[in-house]
Design goal:
alpha/beta; Aminopeptidase; 13 helices; Glucose Oxidase, domain 1; 3-stranded mixed β-sheet
Length: 484
C-alpha cells in the first residue's frame, strides 16, 4: 500500500498563516479560525475508518435490489441519526434487481484447465448445461467492432485489452467501453458469448465485475470477465494452437425492479439555510467483495467530515447535505432520481462534490465554477495545501453521481483521490477493509471537512459555470507529468 508523508508542524499552521491575507474575502476570520480547529480535530480522528469498518462488517456487500441493500439503508439512517444530523430522511428509487448464481469456465481442449471468471452485471445465463465454443481473440474493442459480420458465428469473442495504471484513473475510459458494450457488438458478429480481460490494473487471480448493457434489437449473449492471469493464459494458448475450446457456465437471475433509497442527512444552515453544499458517496456495491473501497470509503469520508462539524458544535451559514446515493453501480440511478426529485431547488445548490474513488489521500482540487470564482478556488486550494492538496483544473464533473448536475448549471468540485491502486481491487472479491490505509482516509476526511465548512460559509458567487460540452470527458485532463 502507499505510504503517506503529511506535512509537519511547520505546515499544520497553514490556515492560520494564510488567514490574515484571506479572511476578508471569501471567508471571515471566524470561519478560518473554525477551519483551523476542525483540521486539527479531523487529523486526530479515526471516524472515517470506523464508519467503513462498521458498514463492511455489519452489512457487507450491498448489491442493488438485494436484502443487504435495504439493510444498508436502515444502517445509514440509524448512523446519521446517531451522528446528530438535524434532518435525516430517505427518498425512494426504483432499481434493477439482478443476481449472480454461477460463474464457471474451463478450457476443454487442447489444454484442459479451469479459468477464473465473473459474470458481468446484467448478463443473461448460458444454457443450464453451459455452452462450449472456440474463442477468437481481439486486442481491443475497436478490433472487435471492425470484425466482419458473421465472422464470429458460434464462437466466443475474447477482448484482451489491458488497462493502464494512472493516479487519476484515466486508463479506465479506454477499456470500460468493451465491458459495457462488448456483448452486443460481439453478438452482432454472430458470437454466442463474450469473455473480457478484467477492467483492472492488477495481476491477481481475481476477476473484476461491473455493469454491462444490451443494445436494443440485438440478441443477448452471456458475458463474463476473466482474471488478468487467465486472460494472459488464453493468449499464450492461442499462440500455440488456433482452436481453444472453452466451456462457459453462467447462471443469473433477473427479477422485477425493486425499491431502494437515497439516504440524506443535513446539518441545517443559519443565514443561508436554503442554500445547499452537497457532499455524497454511493451506498450500493457489487456483491463480490464487501464494497470497502467502492464506495464504503466514500461513505466514511463524507459522514466522517460531517461528524467533525457536528462534534465541534458549529453551525454553517449554508445547509450541508450528505447524500448516500442508491444504485450508482448500475447506471447512476439514485443520482438521476435525486436530480429529478430536487430539480426545483437545484438553483440553490451552491456546490457539490462526491467521494467515489477509494480512500485517498486527496491530492488535487478540481472545480467547475464561474471564471470570476476561480480566485476563490485558488484560495481554497492554498488553504488545503498543507494537507498535500494542489490546485487542479476547472473542468470537473464532481464525481460519478454528481456528474448529472453540471449540465443543469450546478457548480461542482472534484477532490481528486489518489487511485493509483484503486483498480487493483475494483469490483473484485478483494475489495475489503484491509485495503484502506487509515492515514489516507483520515486525510481525505479532513479535506472534505474543510471543504464543506469553507464552502458553507463562503461569500463568493460560483455561477454561472462553464457548461459541459458534448463529448467532454468526465475525467480530469491529465497533468503533464509521468505518473504511470
Amino acid at each position: 500500500m502507499r505510504s503517506l508523508s503529511f506535512i509537519t508542524k511547520a505546515t499544520l499552521s497553514g490556515l492560520a498563516l494564510l488567514s490574515s491575507s484571506l479572511y476578508a474575502s471569501p471567508y471571515s476570520s471566524a470561519t478560518l479560525d473554525a477551519a483551523e480547529a476542525l483540521k486539527q480535530q479531523a487529523l486526530n480522528s479515526s471516524d472515517a475508518y470506523q464508519i467503513v469498518e462498521d458498514l463492511t462488517t455489519e452489512i457487507g456487500p450491498r448489491l442493488t435490489g438485494s436484502d443487504n441493500d435495504l439493510r444498508a439503508v436502515d444502517w445509514a439512517l440509524a448512523r446519521m441519526t446517531t451522528l446528530g444530523f438535524n434532518n435525516v430522511y430517505k427518498e425512494p428509487v426504483e432499481v434493477p434487481h439482478w443476481v449472480r448464481r454461477v460463474n464457471q469456465a474451463e478450457v476443454i481442449s487442447p489444454y484442459p484447465q479451469p479459468l477464473v471468471i465473473t459474470a458481468l452485471g446484467n448478463s443473461i445465463s448460458t444454457p443450464k448445461a453451459g455452452l462450449t465454443a472456440a474463442i477468437v481473440r481481439f486486442a481491443d474493442f475497436d478490433a472487435l467492432k471492425a470484425a466482419p459480420e458473421g465472422s464470429l458465428t458460434g464462437k466466443l469473442a475474447f477482448i484482451d485489452h489491458k488497462m493502464e495504471r494512472y493516479r487519476d484513473g484515466r486508463g479506465y475510459g479506454p477499456v470500460v467501453k468493451a465491458r459495457s458494450q462488448g456483448a452486443s457488438v460481439a453478438a452482432s458478429k454472430g458470437a454466442v458469448g463474450l469473455l473480457l480481460r478484467s477492467v483492472g490494473t492488477d495481476s491477481a487471480r481475481f476477476a473484476h465485475t461491473g455493469t454491462m448493457r444490451y443494445a436494443d434489437g440485438i440478441t443477448k449473449i452471456p458475458a463474463a470477465a476473466l482474471s488478468a492471469p487467465d486472460a494472459d493464459q488464453l493468449t499464450r494458448m492461442l499462440a500455440r494452437h488456433s482452436d481453444i475450446q472453452i466451456k462457459l457456465d453462467i447462471q443469473t437471475e433477473i427479477h422485477p425492479p425493486a425499491t431502494s433509497y437515497n439516504v440524506i442527512g443535513e446539518i441545517s444552515g443559519s443565514s443561508k439555510a436554503d442554500e445547499i453544499v452537497l457532499i455524497g458517496a454511493h451506498l450500493d456495491s457489487w456483491d463480490e467483495g464487501t464494497g470497502a473501497l467502492d464506495d464504503g470509503a466514500g461513505v466514511g469520508i463524507v459522514l466522517g467530515a460531517a461528524k467533525q462539524i457536528i462534534d465541534a458544535n458549529l453551525t454553517p451559514e449554508r445547509t450541508i447535505r450528505v447524500v448516500l446515493f442508491a444504485a450508482e453501480e448500475v447506471g447512476l440511478i439514485g443520482a438521476k432520481a435525486y436530480r429529478d426529485a430536487h430539480k426545483s431547488e437545484l438553483d440553490k445548490h451552491y456546490i457539490a462534490a462526491e467521494a467515489d474513488f477509494g480512500a485517498g489521500p486527496i491530492y488535487a482540487l478540481h472545480s467547475r465554477v464561474s471564471e470570476t470564482a476561480l480566485p476563490q478556488m485558488d484560495q481554497l486550494a492554498a488553504l488545503l495545501a498543507p494537507l498535500g492538496v494542489e490546485r487542479g483544473n476547472n473542468n470537473s464533473w464532481g464525481g460519478p453521481d454528481m456528474s448529472v448536475l453540471p449540465p443543469l448549471g450546478v457548480p461542482v468540485a472534484g477532490l481528486a483521490l489518489d487511485g493509483t491502486d484503486y483498480f487493483d481491487y475494483h469490483h473484485t472479491p478483494d475489495d475489503t477493509l484491509d485495503k484502506i490505509p487509515p492515514k489516507a482516509i483520515q486525510q481525505s476526511m479532513t479535506v472534505y471537512t474543510l471543504f464543506s465548512w469553507l464552502m458553507a460559509n463562503s461569500n463568493t458567487e460560483l455561477r454561472p459555470i462553464p457548461l459541459p460540452k458534448a463529448g467532454e470527458s468526465r475525467r480530469a485532463p491529465p497533468k503533464p507529468k509521468a505518473d504511470k
